[in-house]
Amino acid sequence: MVRLEGPEVADLTLFYSSGFHESAGRRSGPVLGRGGTFIPGRTARERSKGVSRLRCLPWERLAWLGVAGLTTYTAFDVLIFVGELGYYNVAYGWSILGVLAFGAQITLALTATVIPIGFAVGFLVGWARTAKSWFLRAIGGTYVEFFRGMPPLVLIFFSSIIVSLVARSYFYVEDAAPYGIGAGALSLALHSAAYQAEIVRAGILSVPAGQREAADAVGLTAWKTLSRVIMPQAFRVSLPALANEFASEIKDTSLLSIIGALELSFWASLFIRDALALDLNLVFVIWTEVALLYFAITFALTRFLRTVENVSKVPGLEAAQL
Amino acid sequence: MIRVRGVHKYFGDLHVLRGIDLDVEKQDVLCVIGPSGSGKSTLLRCINLLVRPDAGDVFLEDVRVTAPEIKPEWVRQRIGMVFQSFNLFTHLTALKNVTIGLTHVKKMGKQEAILKARRELERVGLGNKLDAYPAELSGGQQQRVAIARALAMDPKVMLFDEPTSALDPEFIREVLDVMAKLANEGMTMIVVTHEMGFAKEVADAIVFMDHGQVLERGTPQEILERPGHERTKSFVGKILR
């Protein structure tokens, strides 16, 4: 493992200039993971002191980028070698990559629609399920049970058919396909929201009742208690499970190919139909590229969420280390 | 300052408070003692409406706070509370634990709130722990932050719910010292406690509660040295050993 001196030195100056001499000996710099790997982002204390993000993002991150680049390069070398053996048709791989990359952009766009909507709705429903009012709880419960019990494929199919029919026959829209796909994406988001609601609910339930009591005793209103005391703590607990759900949402956008969204797996299935007639080895090429593209999108998102997780760590409140 | 009149509270079938009457004058310190399950904590929570009484009334300076048109937030701003298990906001530093009420309830400006919070934390001897998170503090320090958090709101009355019961013996003193100092400065306080030494030295009056009723009220000398009621006698005997 490459260990660079840069961040350590920078952190020490930060440490001594921010007046924490009395807590020397406690961890106070940026979070160091196991094995001394640098986890980017500011610690909670640095955030509270207003230390800029840039000062906490030194060279180790660049080192990691280097390692990633090197790995990719090696992987390509291996791929070309396998291609020379005749198992991997590199020329064919290149020829479809442009179209698949376009598909990946659409997948990215769909993901960028589905995740925020799903999260917003999931958040509201999860909160409603823990509300005092039985009415809100009933609405939340019904929502979760309904959407969790429906196959997403059926939801997508029904919603897109209905919406594009309505758009065509009542609003005289000529090309109703975008509306149908929009409806499909929305139903996918609502489906995922049911799972996220349960994740958010678990997070809220993990906050001890005393926190709420203390917030009440200080005189915070119900909304301030929720937004300033309960949710920040619940969110921290929910993050790993939310990352899970987001990651699976990315792949679920492939279901939208059945209603004609021109996303990654839609193009893949077109290529595969042709390839099956030519050479079975080409199918392997297609699937490999599709898998890599999905992986790239998922990995970028989960790394980002990992960073959020590290940033929201609270000093002194670490979980048990195994 | 605080008047409690005929307060009843049920938790399901359990009759927790059976008609409590209580008076606390301005600048007085009232200690509430009694066996566990006697309703002491519930009584405190009825005063700042964390628990709403099923019957009876609570008055704060002649305002009937149990009236339906009074918002609970209005009452709680004026009555500080300190809990047995501290209940500091774990995701906030000591300083922010104190400023959160100032900025969000009192609508104070950020700089002003920080100055005020700093003063309050210095008052409880934690001027050097402003940026520490609760999990980095000892029990005694956490409880003192909790006291500062309540004091920052400039309450008219402070309620203490067994503030030292969850502390290691070595930290009890520092919390009691802060409370005694507060009492000397003229704060009106209602303290549920098992610290008889504190009650004896600081309290103006002691109330003995059992089974949801106030059985006896008197000066510390009366209650601790010559209790009138049989049950008080046996409880005090057990506690003082």
Give an overview of the whole structure.
The complex is a heterodimer of chains A (322) and B (241). Chain A is an all-alpha fold and 322 residues long. Helix content of chain A is 73%, strand content 0%. The longest helix of chain A has 40 residues, at 90-129. The radius of gyration of chain A is 24 Å and the shape is flat. Mean pLDDT of chain A is 82; it is low at 1-40. Chain B contains 9 helices and 10 strands. The chains are: A mainly alpha (322), B alpha/beta (241).
Record keyword descriptors for this entry:
heterodimer, A: 322 residues, mainly alpha, 0% strand, flat, disordered N terminus, B: 241 residues, alpha/beta, 6-stranded mixed beta sheet, 4-stranded antiparallel beta sheet, 10 strands, 25% strand, globular
Category from helices, strands and their pairing of chain B: alpha/beta
SS summary, helix count of chain A? 11
The mean pLDDT of chain B is 92
Q: Describe the biggest sheet of chain A?
A: none
Q: Can you give the helix content of chain A as a percent range?
A: over 70%
Oligomeric composition of the shown chains: heterodimer
Report the sheet-strand fraction of chain A: under 5%
Helix content of chain B: 25-40%
* Helix count, DSSP H or I runs of 4 or more residues of chain B: 9
Number of strands of chain B: 10
Radius of gyration from the alpha-carbon trace of chain A, in angstroms: 24 Å
Distance between the termini of chain B: 35 Å
Order of helices and strands of chain B: EEEHEEHEHHHEHEHEEHH
Name the structural class of chain A.
mainly alpha
User: What strand order characterises the main sheet of chain B?
Assistant: 6-7-8-3-9-10
The greatest inter-chain interface is formed by: A-B, 30 and 34 residues
Major sheet size, sense and barrel closure of chain B: 6 strands, mixed
Order of helices and strands of chain A: HHHHHHHHHHH
Segments of chain B where pLDDT lies below 50 for 5+ residues?
Answer: none
